[in-house]
Design goal:
The protein is mainly alpha-helical. The chain has 18 helices and 2 strands. Helix 2 runs antiparallel to helix 4, helix 12 runs antiparallel to helix 13 and helix 16 runs antiparallel to helix 17. The two termini are 42 Å apart.
Amino acid sequence: ELSFYLVIPLLISATQNIYMGIITPYVSAMQIQIMVVINFVFAVLLCLFVYFIQPKLMSKRLIKNTVWIIVFTVGYSLATIVLFHASPMSGFASLRNILNPMMFFLIGLLTCKVTILKRFLKYVSFIAMFVFAFGVYERFINPDIWNTLNLADLWTKKGIPVNLSSGLPLNYYSSETIGGEQLRRMVSSFADPVNLGTFLFFGFMAAWYLKKYLLAFFMIIATALTISKGALLGLLVFLVVWAKNYTPKAVFFLILMTSGVAGLGFLGYTMMHSTMSALMHLTGFFSAFLELPHHPLGRGLGNIGVLAGLYSTGAETGITESGLGMIIGQLGVVGIVLFFIFFKSINSNLKLVEDKREKVLGQALFIGITLNIAFNEVALSPNSSAVYFIALGLICGKAGLSSTKTKETKKKRFKKFVW
């Protein structure tokens, strides 16, 4: 049973800035860059391990299709580095983020027969309790803990700017002014409010599925303290998906309208009382489609996005702060087609889920992370979305692979009947 091993990438993401902060004065920037990708390397090795112990799984259509999508994505991505003269360093850094959803989804598919979903989510809930406790500690009891843990030095070696006066990353304070001032955000053990916000919604969904309602309440409190737009969006998505599956049509429509008004109201407040970070997310997403006719094949892996700015000069573009925009900007029409096929496959298999609670879990996670990726580039990273796609792989694998078996059995029975 592999639940514990599947949760290791999340455990790394939730704690890596603590142990890297402790050792950062004694290691080089290159060593830090290598340590950052450990969770992704672990995922690749786990895929290879499962393949060697269960090679017959590769004959399953759902798994085979996912592998082919990964192969085509890698092949075209590497070709664009040569075609558009991109920086290899920023190219390979971007490739990790582009492959992240497919790779971790594949892990879930490959291990769905030897993993118990409830046990996996229980391990996640243990991490969620730790994250909440650490978040309360760093926000209210010891706000200077990240200065003690050499965060400014760590961020500098990662190539990320920090506030020179406070020594803290720029996003540690809300872009919105609340009560006339920008508030300090909870960052917990992630040391990053964006990655934390994405995890908090997953933690909420895990708690809801396991009926750990006190933990779900803590996740909502942490979302408010983190001032996370991504987690708030996820909670609104959950309300709509829950209503669709558990309430009459009239109630569902009312909740849908209320959630829409609440979302638009918060967006309006953000636009009027912020440093325009929300506007950058929106314009970054739509700019990708406006620029597509001029660059149908993309501009090359590593030439667009945040990582392009860290490791190279990048291309002049209006595409900023959008994960989907970054994919379109780098890979063009080919990137759109590959990700459309990938997400369509997930959606199709979620429709096969029979258990209502599991279906709500899968649909809320899928819609939530898809919207997050559309308007937030950081959501593509393993630290944000790996746990989502592992869970989606487990759910889709359980539903899709058993559904295929059922179809094959029916075909055999039909042939026998005809004979």
